[in-house]
Design brief:
Elements: E1 22-30, E2 35-42, E3 55-62, E4 65-72, E5 83-88, H1 94-102, E6 108-115, E7 133-138, H2 143-155, E8 161-167, H3 176-185, E9 189-195, E10 207-208, H4 213-219, E11 227-231, H5 234-246, E12 254-256, E13 286-291, E14 296-301, H6 306-312, E15 331-335, E16 338-340, H7 348-352, E17 355-356, E18 361-363, E19 367-369
Parallel strand pairs: 7-8, 7-11, 8-9, 9-10, 11-12, 13-19
Antiparallel strand pairs: 1-2, 1-6, 2-5, 3-4, 3-6, 13-14, 15-17, 15-19, 16-18
Length: about 375
């Protein structure tokens, strides 16, 4: 038996907190031909408390560079001694390929979180949602919705959930056997899988094609009355938004994961929303931002974030979420002051050491940064 495993008859371990950092990989599982799950346990005795659907941020040293990536927890907080991430191997993806090729039981990872607001479980004591839920996922976007579904099963919640998952072929369906088991276990949890092609399984008899308004209406008769939770590749989520709007769905009841967890946006690429590249307000005071290592300077208005100003100046800075939660853009501040409204991307001790997140920080003075 693993000596680091908890004593199940003892009192629960303290909760994982912002002061904790190190996780140990205790198990690796193949889910499909290119998707793998990694089960992680705290190095120190800890239990994990979080809302189903939240994510953690890993800090990995790969090729002499510190990289940060966010991965949704597909595990449920009802099983608090471990957390699990499920990672799709992305062609050319530095981190996903490193995890698939190198992460083995016994290896340690630096992590922060859990964090995020994508959850059908409201803060406070768990209750069955009054409104029916519709889970829509594409590819590896199934992970947060599986976390929510697993929590429902473990808690015995009689929640009204319609789960529709889209995949390219039957062999690409993540958690296929567990989806079937959940449908048998939970009386009002119903699942539909739709595949674009049969692939190498000519005997597949399930739904074929792509998610469409007709399919949604056919599978979910009370679609317009439900709360929708959607996660998947950006084109998938964009298509879902268009379908729901066309059908007259009240988009105030639509929720989606706001950024990709598998990799940060390409440096120098256009931001995903107009807000990130908004021009500097002319009436606000302007400060000078200096990048010491690169020898570059740019102006930043007091009314915009440092990341927005850098993008407006044509400079390439790493980022992912643009919401202060993932830590990808973390930068050490050598001088100057900022107003930062982060969402958990930095630990308090890191802030005390001078680190800040350009994506959610506005300057209060001239800044010198260690970049």
């Amino acid at each position: 038996m693993n000596s680091s495993a908890p004593d199940l008859a003892a009192s629960p371990a303290p909760a994982w907190s912002v002061d904790d950092e190190w996780l140990t990989c205790v198990q690796v599982r193949d889910e499909t031909h290119d998707v793998r799950s990694f089960v992680l346990r705290s190095v120190e005795p800890r239990c994990f408390r979080y809302r189903p659907g939240q994510f953690i941020t890993l800090a990995l040293d790969i090729g002499g560079e510190r990289l940060h990536r966010c991965y949704t927890l597909c595990s449920s907080p009802t099983r608090p001694d471990t957390v699990t991430i499920t990672v799709k191997r992305v062609p050319g993806g530095v981190v996903s390929n490193w995890l698939h090729d190198h992460l083995q039981p016994g290896m340690r990872l630096s992590a922060t979180g859990p964090a995020g607001d994508f959850s059908c479980f409201a803060p406070g004591p768990v209750t069955v949602p009054a409104r029916g839920q519709l889970f829509l996922s594409g590819g590896s976007g199934i992970t947060p919705l599986m976390s929510m579904s697993r929590a429902c099963a473990d808690l015995g919640l009689d929640a009204d959930v319609q789960f529709i998952h889209a995949a390219r072929t039957p062999r690409d369906v993540v958690f296929a056997e567990e989806i079937t088991l959940l449908a048998r276990t939970l009386p009002r949890w119903r699942a539909t899988v739709v595949c674009e092609q049969r692939g190498d399984q000519p005997g597949y008899t399930g739904l074929l094609g792509r998610l469409s308004p007709a399919l949604l209406q056919g599978q979910v008769g009370d679609l317009l009355e439900r709360e929708v939770w959607c996660c998947g590749p950006a084109p998938f989520m964009a298509a879902v938004r268009t379908m729901l709007s066309t059908l007259g769905f009240d988009m105030a009841r639509y929720h989606e994961e706001s950024f990709s967890f598998e990799a940060p946006a390409l440096e120098g690429s256009s931001p995903s929303s107009g807000e990130a590249a908004a021009p500097a307000p002319t009436e606000a005071p302007t400060f000078e931002i200096q990048l010491r290592q690169r020898g570059e300077r740019f102006a930043c208005s007091a009314g915009e974030t440092v990341l927005q100003a850098a993008q407006r100046a044509g400079l390439r800075l790493p980022f992912s979420c643009s919401n202060g939660v993932c830590g990808t853009c973390r930068t050490r501040k050598l001088s100057g002051e900022v107003q930062m409204q982060q969402g958990g991307g930095l630990r308090p001790r890191e802030v005390a050491q001078g680190w800040f997140l350009p994506c959610c920080s506005q300057p209060l003075s001239d800044l010198e940064l260690d970049r």
